[in-house]
């Protein structure tokens, strides 16, 4: 019995090979079907070698969502896995079906059809985009809006541009002004700003009359538009600039660091490095010697030996270095370092390195 099965398997395989040998090209089988080419025409065969479609198409595409695109005389339609033309070959362009819908083109207009060929999204738009979270951007007469999967326009197609939805909101532009809409099409943030950034951590930087401020997702103004620039939040704090002075604010809009010159702000800014933070780095003099001074705090739970080094510069060229160290900085302790500058002609100092070593006790 086993020999009979092996014999029949060999005969069956030979029949397929003989059947396939007449074609100019045969693709690999996928889900029991393979694309074949003969005399520059295309079709499909099954694993018995039977042609499930006439070899008549200019091209056939892989099956997607149960249907395959086919091209005939520069027109497109769809066949099912029995070879039946289930959607007429009449379109100027078609995409694969995804989640029950496919984008189609007819006379330079675009829409979506379902698997029965019904126009779910009317073929009237100058452009239709991919659905994302059940909504898609559309373009009509140079304007943009959004539709849902039933074809309902959830916003009027009136905007000069619309962005993707992020965290429930999408940026819109109208007459060079910007705002945000929600998924119902409601303008949650009025279209009145000269510029808006995408929301991050629940906040958006907005621009009005050349100044920047902060709003939340309800449109509430957290920070009035008074700053020249607001940077991204980091650890709950954002750097701000106003009239060439720098400071920082928290997410409630409260001032964390008062506005001051860039040099002073950089010197006072707290910077983290591993278990250490350092700040108030500046140069000073006692009347005899200049020093680089500042503070370093140990935020860890063990003691460290800490070494800090600065490069010394004149006219942009490095001419030397200075350093200071503490042999043991206990947890929670603040070290006030003092690195002497021995060269009189030094006009700039820059932090080169901050190194710490765990003291094994």
Question: What distinguishing features does this structure have?
Answer:
361 residues; mainly beta; Thrombin, subunit H; Immunoglobulin-like; four-stranded antiparallel beta sheet; 2 helices; 33 strands; 7% helix
Verbal overview:
The longest helix is centred in the first third of the chain and has 19 residues, at 2-20. Among the domains are: 12-98, Thrombin, subunit H; 270-361, Immunoglobulin-like (Sandwich), CATH 2.60.40. Strands 4-5-6-7 form a four-stranded antiparallel beta sheet, with no helix packed on it. A four-stranded antiparallel beta sheet has the order 8-9-10-11, with no helix packed on it. The chain has 361 residues and is mainly β. The protein has two helices and 33 strands. The model is unreliable at 7-18 (pLDDT under 50).
Offer a concise description of the structure.
This protein is mainly beta and 361 residues long. The protein has helices spanning 2-20, 262-268, and strands spanning 25-26, 33-38, 41-46, 59-64, 67-72, 75-79, 85-91, 93-94, 102-106, 109-113, 119-125, 127-128, 135-140, 143-148, 161-166, 169-174, 177-182, 187-193, 195-196, 203-208, 211-216, 221-227, 229-230, 237-242, 245-250, 255-260, 271-273, 276-285, 290-298, 304-314, 317-329, 334-341, 348-358.
């Amino acid at each position: 019995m086993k020999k009979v099965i092996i014999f029949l398997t060999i005969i069956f395989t030979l029949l397929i090979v003989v059947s396939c040998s007449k074609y100019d090209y045969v693709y690999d089988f996928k889900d029991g079907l393979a694309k074949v080419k003969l005399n520059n025409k295309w079709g499909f065969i099954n694993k018995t070698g039977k042609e499930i479609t006439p070899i008549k198409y200019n091209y056939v595409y892989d099956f997607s969502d149960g249907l395959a695109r086919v091209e005939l005389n520069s027109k497109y339609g769809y066949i099912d896995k029995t070879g039946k033309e289930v959607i007429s070959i009449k379109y100027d362009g078609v995409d694969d079906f995804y989640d029950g819908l496919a984008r189609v083109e007819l006379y330079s207009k675009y829409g979506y059809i379902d698997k029965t060929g019904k126009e779910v999204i009317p073929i009237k738009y100058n452009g239709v985009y991919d659905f994302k979270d059940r909504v898609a951007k559309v373009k009509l007469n140079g304007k943009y809006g959004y539709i849902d999967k039933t074809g309902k326009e959830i916003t009027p197609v009136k905007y000069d541009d619309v962005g993707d939805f992020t965290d429930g909101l999408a940026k819109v532009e109208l007459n060079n002004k910007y705002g945000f809409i929600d998924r119902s099409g409601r303008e949650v943030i009025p279209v009145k700003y000269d510029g808006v950034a995408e929301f991050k951590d629940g906040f958006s930087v907005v621009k009005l009359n050349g100044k920047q401020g902060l709003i939340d997702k309800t449109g509430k103004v957290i920070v009035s538009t008074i700053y020249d620039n607001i940077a991204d939040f980091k650890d709950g704090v954002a750097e701000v600039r106003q009239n060439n002075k720098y400071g920082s604010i928290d997410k409630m809009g409260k001032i964390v660091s008062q506005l001051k010159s860039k040099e002073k702000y950089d010197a006072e800014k707290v910077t983290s490095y591993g278990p250490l933070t350092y700040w108030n780095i500046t140069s000073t003099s006692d009347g005899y010697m200049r020093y680089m001074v500042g503070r370093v705090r140990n935020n860890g739970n063990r003691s460290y030996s800490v070494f800090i080094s600065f490069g010394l510069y004149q006219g942009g060229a490095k001419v030397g270095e200075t350093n200071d160290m503490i042999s043991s900085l206990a947890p929670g302790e603040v070290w006030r370092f003092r690195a002497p500058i021995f060269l009189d002609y030094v006009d700039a100092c820059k932090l080169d390195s901050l190194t710490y070593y765990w003291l094994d006790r």
